[in-house]
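User: My instructor asked us to take a sequence, write out its structure as tokens, and then describe one feature of it. I'm not sure where to start. Here is the sequence I was given:
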Amino acid sequence: MSKILFVMTGVDYWTLADGTRHPTGYWAEEVVAPYTAFKAAGHEIVVATPGGVAPTVDKGSLAPEVNGGQEGAAAIAAVLDAATELRQPIRLADVDLADYDAVYYPGGHGPMEDLAVNAESGALLNATLASGKPLGVVCHAPAALLATAADGNTPFAGYRVTGFTNAEETQAGFADKAKWLLQDQLVDLGVDFREGEPWAAHIEVDRTLYTGQNPASSAPLAAELVKALG
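Assistant: Let's start with the prediction itself. The structure tokens for your sequence are:
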């Protein structure tokens, strides 16, 4: 059995370019699909957030239309309701990487607000990469990579990475409202950004770094992490 750390956003909003706060948090599927896969494989999960606050689900991610209908939405909600780890997170500042076999970052727009500028998260990402332990990051969570360049350089430079694309943000209706777009920022960071078809599952595996483009990518990403953990 392995122990997997879920690093999650601690905010329930995303500040748009005009200063308004868009209600958000984490995206349900990106937590539920990996959570279910890891639990089925017998692994233990610990959740960490900035300040140890209980993470907030983006209510839009619970809607039937993004979960294949009412039955899918009910199944997603049931997993979240039963996941006691989500209600008992530890403080990100208290994380000891030595305690974990892998680290996973789910998305949602929340990480664009807090993890993108969180130095503790940035240091953890750098340490995880250096450790050789599997590191999974999906959808908007690669925003957290922006906090890894404390000295202007990031160890993630040159790595193949995917994440929520400009095309997807445009189709989601936020591209013209956002302060910045994730794809643009990752390119500027110096990673080798790879873009798949909008909304289709697309993952990139480069050494021990596993990234997924969108919510549909979270299940195949989790399957690759399960294989990596043996």
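For the description part of your assignment, you could build on this observation: The first strand starts at residue 3 and ends at 7. Try explaining in your own words what that tells you about the chain.
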